[in-house]
Design goal:
Radius of gyration: 20 Å
Helix content: over 70%
Structural class: mainly alpha
Number of domains: 2
Distance between the termini: 64 Å
Largest sheet: none
Order of helices and strands: HHHHHHHHHHHHH
Shape: globular
Number of helices: 13
Length: 241
Amino acid sequence: MTLSSAPPGARPRAGAFRSGLLAALPIALGYFPIAFSFGVAATRAGLSGAEAVMLSVLIFAGAAQFLALALVTSGAPLVVSAVTLVAMNLRHVMYAPALLEQAGGAARTRHAWAWAWGLTDEVFGAALGAFARGGRSFSEAFMGGLGLGAYGAWIGGTAAGAFAGGGVLEDWPAVEAGLGFMLPALFLALLLSILRRAQVAAAAVAIAVTVAGMLALSPSAGILGGILAGALAGVFRRRQR
């Protein structure tokens, strides 16, 4: 009796999945301590460990989870909380189409419902960088590994923080404050690694409108305005070529 061989394409998919997990390592190293601080903050606010972890399982949105925690614990109406969180995370809807445009029309989307769930800012930046530099072609297996690595680190960090308890960082205020800068710093590093000269103008417009909107209105309005302004600036520049 001989063992049956693996189905065609199984090994390439497994290799791409492992490559995705490896590419997720820098993101996981950044996510774990931030998620840890979220777990601590959630238990400090009165949530149980299971409730804190469930927020990370269901939302998985970084800064939006801290906002969700503030809204829930402040007694904000459910509708207001839901609309605020949707507005803050609306940019995620644009990530998968942007990646597929970079990949070309031959990209498979059979399992997009699964890998698109993991498209956070940092995962999107890492994936776009990998494809834009030409070192890797788009594959759903790679995207699955990349997203799963980041997702697992976020849930694991939340669980560790919730288990440690709400008072674990009270004696380390500088560490607790510094954790808040890790997400934007990580995304900025990924952005700078893939930014080309032709994209600088659109990025500058997006940053300027985001900052102005956040100062004049609210963080959610600033983010949405920056996304729209950056997209319009990019379209305008492309038409000028």
